[in-house]
Amino acid sequence: MGGPPDGSPSGAALRVRGLVKRYGARTAVDGLDLDVAAGSVTALLGPNGAGKTSTVECCLGLRRPDGGSVEVLGADVLRAAADPDHRAAVGAMLQDGGLPTSARPLRLLRHLARLHAHPRDVDVLAERLGLPAFARTSVRRLSGGQRQRLALAAALVGRPRLLFLDEPTAGLDPAARLVVWDLVREAVAEGAGVLLTTHDLDEAERLAQHVVIVDGGRALATGAPGVLTARSTASLRFTAGPGLDLGPLRRALPEDVVVSEAAPGSYVVSGDVDPQVVAGVTSWCAQRGVMPDALSVGRPSLEEVFLDLTGRSLR
Ligand SMILES: Nc1ncnc2c1ncn2[C@@H]1O[C@H](COP(=O)(O)OP(=O)(O)OP(=O)(O)O)[C@@H](O)[C@H]1O
């Protein structure tokens, strides 16, 4: 058996061009482009039904695309899926696990490690993910979070050069989340390319160098998290009692400035927010005896950019 494939000459771990996936009359993925560079994380973000899972399944060779191309470590995905060396170089942690239900966690990990040329140290990996606490429990009896930690260990144990992580920290406690993030960063530092699907924008901002926001199977925006947030204009936010009458404030501000109560007691002033607008808001507060709390002016978070683009929240 040869070593793991080195990837394409460009260093791309994954290259997707014009991907189309249809289920009967429904088009789940509609001409999507996607890149994962070696040694980096690309986050695929989108609301429910956006086409993320279909995309990942096409990239893993689990579904045949209806159009476009998918290159995995420099080879066409369907050829790569049929080649054991390529398969060994790709790790995946999927929502429905795919772990054998009668297996015991540590025995399963040791078995998987033996299938790879340069596996991670099973005991160290298991310890970090807290697997020894349920080493004797069969997969079918594990809790959701335990199964997830085992699935991540199984995806990482062979030191994959391309790693698919589908909501890796959903439902994990905060301490386990930090461990998962550390493990992902370590895999990336060793040169792995990671495609991360997540509903957690904080996770995307922390881990990803590149973000693709999808909806309706199409990319609505792509770029570094900082670039995506910098594209949007600054807004002013403050909290105060809910239900303030915003009519007089709207009339006091320029027409292109939008004032809204995004959630009860949480106010957003967006548009061309300049010093005059800030002064207009604070003097309106002063006239009404309103003490604005947590008043800030700044670029929106990735979460707000996402909401603007898709009109939907991720959660
Ligand atoms: N096997 C299937 N047969 C028919 N339609 C499907 C199938 N799988 C997915 N779809 C449809 O394709 C669209 C995209 O689904 P997909 O699961 O790829 O989205 P997603 O972004 O992963 O969603 P979620 O965040 O809810 O997991 C949806 O409209 C879904 O109903």
Automatic annotation (TrEMBL):
<dbReference type="GO" id="GO:0016887">
    <property type="term" value="F:ATP hydrolysis activity"/>
</dbReference>
<feature type="domain" description="ABC transporter">
    <location>
        <begin position="14"/>
        <end position="241"/>
    </location>
</feature>
<dbReference type="GO" id="GO:0005524">
    <property type="term" value="F:ATP binding"/>
</dbReference>
<dbReference type="InterPro" id="IPR003439">
    <property type="entry name" value="ABC_transporter-like_ATP-bd"/>
</dbReference>
<dbReference type="InterPro" id="IPR003593">
    <property type="entry name" value="AAA+_ATPase"/>
</dbReference>
<dbReference type="InterPro" id="IPR017871">
    <property type="entry name" value="ABC_transporter-like_CS"/>
</dbReference>
<keyword id="KW-0046">Antibiotic resistance</keyword>
<dbReference type="Pfam" id="PF00005">
    <property type="entry name" value="ABC_tran"/>
</dbReference>
<keyword id="KW-0813">Transport</keyword>
<protein>
    <submittedName>
        <fullName>ABC transporter ATP-binding protein</fullName>
    </submittedName>
</protein>
<dbReference type="GO" id="GO:0046677">
    <property type="term" value="P:response to antibiotic"/>
</dbReference>
<keyword id="KW-0547">Nucleotide-binding</keyword>
<dbReference type="GO" id="GO:0005886">
    <property type="term" value="C:plasma membrane"/>
</dbReference>
<dbReference type="InterPro" id="IPR027417">
    <property type="entry name" value="P-loop_NTPase"/>
</dbReference>
<dbReference type="InterPro" id="IPR050763">
    <property type="entry name" value="ABC_transporter_ATP-binding"/>
</dbReference>
<keyword id="KW-0067">ATP-binding</keyword>
